[in-house]
């Protein structure tokens, strides 16, 4: 990317060997799963099959997958309103997520959360969050707990260029630096704050906000899964070894609208050109196609092997949608019983 | 056996006991190490920096961090000093801790205790004197505790810290030095059980937190005029003990609600609505609310006294009802 500035620490990270061929194949399959799930949700949303809005991650898959490849179930992630990719990359179950979006009892949140709140606490997925920037403080708290536990766990916090203009970013950069918390801040700069190009509402460089706290900071091409993987390897190792927080700004691009069916609310209004979107869909930009080309060029996989993966992913997505469609409608009574844990005469 | 303790000492005792009992209980907030509010005195020396520590002034992070800590198995006790500061930390209160349990289909428990002083009367002016509990009551997902005595302060705080839900523990500002009997040993007060502070037969006065004291003074004065007042202290606003209040109103036929929060959509409004819906048949006259009017708290002490409910206004409200029957009202 022309705008990417590689700083000293990223250069150090680049010296590491990247993912092995087998690891790169896994990254490809996970990115492809996210892509195909999101494409199906795009189509089902357009067909009016989904009860609520969905905010899709198409074009940004390399960020979640490249970071989460370094995390285990005992590590934590906080996510955004555009959270399906983080959920799947962290090992969330595709059936349970799909059923949630379809508002079914079998959903990971029993139909009470929906697309914007998919969470699986048993896997350290503390939840997608509909409030822009809210994950910053939650991840900081989780990282404080992880530090006190003293077992080398960490919290990765995904947020966007939009959230970077929330004051809580400054608060959490300050506190996590002071307290040397094991948190990795991952800014997914997809260039849009909802329906506004971020350059119109953002002064300076986002990564400079972390540099102001002397926090180890890397800016990477967020559509290059290997670059994300390397930067994350460096940041995760720092967190696990007691080195405190790190900041990664991943430059990427949101292919879909802020949410599906945005054309309805825009009613003819425009905030970007079709040519720009088309350029980001080309093989030299698209993170999934780029990874595929790398696999072929390096000899890590041949065409037949990749087609087998692609077929397997489609089967998985079809299965998840069938599971969701056939699910039981959510239980409305849960709305009354789930607000409190009833254990204190309360 | 009982011991005489000041209210802030009772809070301090509860914190010592619960931090001793459960190593997962953490305390943080602005200036908690020195404990300028008095209720955290000695904790830092005893428990050390991993269990209690000062934070920057950043309420959005303090409340959000409590959600993160709760999600990973800790119980954060956050001291926010004044209930006005809930407003600066409101996202994690309103959008996270009150909602995450439902949103996740019950996956998370959110054991969080937020402590703050509230109310006027100390010339702290508009931004340090709110009684900011109505906004919490409206969230639906947090407990709201309003102790009026040292014993209840200790018992409610201990219950909150043992609980698995978010709870807001509201200390009556300016009453920290008041002394009362606190039972020795393990003293827990369950949520949702009102206390009858004084029995009476003519008019029920439900008074909240800081307002219990002027309500009792009013009841004394009214006794001299031959009016028998029953004073009820709900102790917790969420959950709210409807049964005790309804039973009292069934007996007296009259209700005055004394609430230091502002009138509009305050606790008194909610409580009046509950009684109007569920005990209308028993009412012999209108329900009276004695509240702070819909104004910011003024600085001048005489102006504060003018707007905060006091004994005189409570007496007047009771006298406007006492002896009324439906016929008299008509």
State the name of the first-level CATH class of chain A: Alpha Beta
Report the largest inter-chain contact.
A-B, 51 and 48 residues
The number of helical runs of chain A is 14
Q: What is the CATH third-level topology name of the largest domain in chain B?
A: Rossmann fold
How is this structure best described in words?
The complex is a heterodimer of chains A (346) and B (330). Chain A is of the alpha/beta class and 346 residues long. Chain A has a single domain (8-323), classed as Thiamin diphosphate (ThDP)-binding fold, Pyr/PP domains (Rossmann fold). Helices cover 46% and strands 9% of the residues of chain A. Chain A has helices at 8-15, 21-46, 61-68, 84-89, 94-101, 134-149, 167-178, 206-211, 225-240, 262-266, 274-281, 287-298, 303-325, 334-337, and strands at residues 76-78, 155-160, 183-189, 192-193, 196-197, 217-221, 246-251. In chain A, the strands form 2 sheets. A 5-stranded parallel sheet of chain A has the order 1-2-3-7-6, with helices on both faces. A two-stranded antiparallel sheet of chain A has the order 4-5. Chain A is globular, with a radius of gyration of 20 Å. Chain B folds into 2 domains: 2-183, Thiamin diphosphate (ThDP)-binding fold, Pyr/PP domains (Rossmann fold, 3-Layer(aba) Sandwich); 195-329, Rossmann fold, CATH 3.40.50.920. In chain B, the strands form 3 sheets. In chain B, strands 3-2-4-5-7-6-12 form a 7-stranded mixed sheet, sandwiched between helices. Chain B has a 5-stranded mixed sheet with strand order 9-11-10-13-14, with helices on both faces. A two-stranded antiparallel sheet of chain B has the order 1-8. Chain B is globular, with a radius of gyration of 20 Å.
